[in-house]
């Protein structure tokens, strides 16, 4: 099991964005702009789909990593934090939990 989290990666991406001296791949994406980042994300997502359809487990892990990385870069480029996305996921979980409770109440 790894201690590495998406939060860690998002923080690294944010620091690359702010580092004007950086010539890293991440910085080059920010310099190229949101349309370029969105295009890269789309390409990686399609490659992930292909790996999943091929049943190629190792390729799926690699492409999923590329997709998550580019998703985080895209969110950062639009000043959306991972926390905001997680909050939305949490809200949906709570909502579906409430709906489940309500349906148990109605049936029980
Ligand atoms: N997780 C990643 C990560 N996943 C994928 N990639 C890069 O994404 C690119 C996608 O590969 P492609 O073959 O599709 O694209 P390419 O041919 O390199 O580029 P294009 O001309 O097609 O755009 C590769 O250059 C990968 O290195 C990543 N680059 C960086 N990270 C993380 O970001 C951190 C900072 O990286 P740097 O910005 O490189 O310092 C690293 O420590 C990693 O944790």
Topology, pairings included?
Blueprint: H1 6-18, H2 25-32, H3 34-54, H4 57-77, H5 82-107
Helix pairs in contact: 1-4, 3-4
The structure holds phosphoribosyl ATP.
Could you write a compact summary of the structure shown?
The chain has five helices and no strands.
Structural description of this entry:
Keywords: Amino-acid biosynthesis, ATP-binding, Cytoplasm, Histidine biosynthesis, Hydrolase, Nucleotide-binding. Its EC number is 3.6.1.31. Belongs to the PRA-PH family. The chain has 108 residues and is an all-alpha fold. It folds into 2 domains: 1-77, Helix Hairpins (Orthogonal Bundle), CATH 1.10.287; 80-108. The chain is 82% helix and 0% strand. The chain has helices spanning 6-18, 25-32, 34-54, 57-77, 82-107. It is extended and about 60 Å long. The structure holds phosphoribosyl ATP. Phosphoribosyl ATP binds next to helix 1, helix 2 and helix 4.
CATH architecture of the largest domain: Orthogonal Bundle
Average pLDDT metric = 94
**Count of folded domains:** 2
Strand content: under 5%
User: C-alpha Rg, in Å?
Assistant: 18 Å
At the fold tier of CATH, the topology name of the largest domain is: Helix Hairpins
* Helical residues, percent: over 70%
The overall strand count is 0
Distance between the ends:
40 Å
Count of separate DSSP helical elements: 5
Low-confidence regions: none
What is the approximate shape? extended
Ions, cofactors and other ligands present here are:
phosphoribosyl ATP
Secondary-structure element order, N to C: HHHHH
* Largest β sheet strand count, sense and barrel closure: none
Structural class: mainly alpha
**What top-tier CATH class of the largest domain fits best?**
Mainly Alpha
CATH superfamily of the largest domain: MazG-like
Pathway: Amino-acid biosynthesis; L-histidine biosynthesis; L-histidine from 5-phospho-alpha-D-ribose 1-diphosphate: step 2/9
Keywords: Amino-acid biosynthesis, ATP-binding, Cytoplasm, Histidine biosynthesis, Hydrolase, Nucleotide-binding
Enzyme class: hydrolase
Pfam families: PRA-PH (PF01503)
């Amino acid at each position: 099991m790894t201690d590495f989290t998406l939060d860690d990666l998002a923080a690294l991406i944010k620091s690359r964005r702010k580092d004007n001296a950086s010539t890293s791949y991440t910085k080059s994406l920010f310099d190229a702009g949101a349309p370029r980042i969105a295009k890269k994300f789309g390409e990686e997502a399609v490659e992930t789909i292909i790996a999943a359809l091929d049943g190629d487990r190792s390729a799926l892990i690699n492409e999923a990593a590329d997709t998550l990385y580019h998703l985080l870069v895209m969110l950062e480029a639009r000043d959306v934090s991972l926390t905001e996305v997680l909050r939305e996921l949490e809200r949906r979980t709570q909502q579906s939990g409430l709906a489940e409770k309500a349906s148990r109440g109605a049936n029980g």
